[in-house]
């Protein structure tokens, strides 16, 4: 087992991964939402579309967990996407409680047309980092997420390129 990084008597929250992660989230979310201020769709709509496109989620319940939304908020979000013809709901044949979500062709096109806003934003933020630094940051954040999700330390491994 690796030697612990943090020491109780030296712990400074400004060096805490939890604090830094929350700070980044609080800084990024309003800026990401502002990217969509001139659109009918919000950043949350785009996240839902891209999450479906990339196979991160396939059901309304998975989308709620992924976006950390309650089921009511997720239902409203999916209602809005469905009304615009971007998402289709279907009940599972094996479990009627499960609502499967699929992107329509218009939904796929919409996600694609809005993605440059997010890509350009991230490229601007990461402009002072080398490609190797960004790749390392992505790898470390993904490993940290895997570790948290698994509830145990994830040993160093080479992740597939994204």
Give, in order, the helices and strands: HHHHEEHH
Strand proportion, as a percent range, falls in 5-15%
State the secondary-structure class.
mainly alpha
- In one word, what is the shape? globular
Order of strands, widest sheet: 1-2
Mean pLDDT: 91
Span from first to last CA?
29 Å
Cα-based radius of gyration, to the nearest Å: 19 Å
Count the beta strands: 2
Task: Please work out how many helical segments DSSP would assign.
Answer: 6
- Helix fraction? 55-70%
What are the low-pLDDT stretches, counting only 5+ consecutive residues below 50?
none
Largest sheet: 2 strands, antiparallel
Keywords:
single chain, 162 residues, mainly alpha, two-stranded antiparallel sheet, 6 helices
Could you provide a short overview of the structure?
The chain is mostly helical and 162 residues long. It contains six helices and two strands; from the N terminus they run ααααββαα.
Describe the structure.
The chain has 162 residues and is mainly alpha-helical. Helix content is 56%, strand content 6%. It has helices at 17-34, 43-53, 60-67, 71-83, 105-125, 131-150; strands spanning 87-91, 99-103. A two-stranded antiparallel sheet has the order 1-2. β1 and β2 (99-103) form a beta hairpin. α2 (43-53) packs across α5. It is globular and about 55 Å long. It starts with 16 loop residues before the first helix and ends in a 12-residue tail after the last helix.
Topology of this structure?
Blueprint: H1 17-34, H2 43-53, H3 60-67, H4 71-83, E1 87-91, E2 99-103, H5 105-125, H6 131-150
Antiparallel strand pairs: 1-2
Helix pairs in contact: 2-5, 3-4
């Amino acid at each position: 087992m690796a030697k612990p990084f943090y020491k109780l008597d030296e712990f400074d929250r400004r060096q805490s991964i939890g604090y830094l992660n929350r700070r980044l989230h609080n800084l990024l979310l309003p800026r990401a939402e502002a990217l969509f201020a001139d659109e009918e769709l919000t950043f949350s709509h785009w996240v839902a579309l891209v999450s479906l496109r990339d196979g991160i989620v396939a059901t309304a319940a998975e989308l709620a967990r992924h976006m950390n939304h309650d089921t009511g908020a997720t239902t409203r979000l999916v209602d809005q996407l469905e009304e615009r013809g971007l998402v289709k709901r279907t009940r599972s044949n094996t479990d009627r409680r499960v609502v499967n979500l699929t992107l329509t062709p218009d939904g796929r096109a919409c996600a694609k047309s809005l993605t440059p806003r997010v890509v350009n934003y991230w490229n601007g933020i990461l402009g002072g980092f080398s490609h190797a630094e960004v790749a390392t940051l992505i790898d470390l954040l993904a490993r940290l997420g895997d570790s948290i999700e698994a509830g145990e330390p994830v040993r160093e491994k080479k992740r597939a390129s994204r």
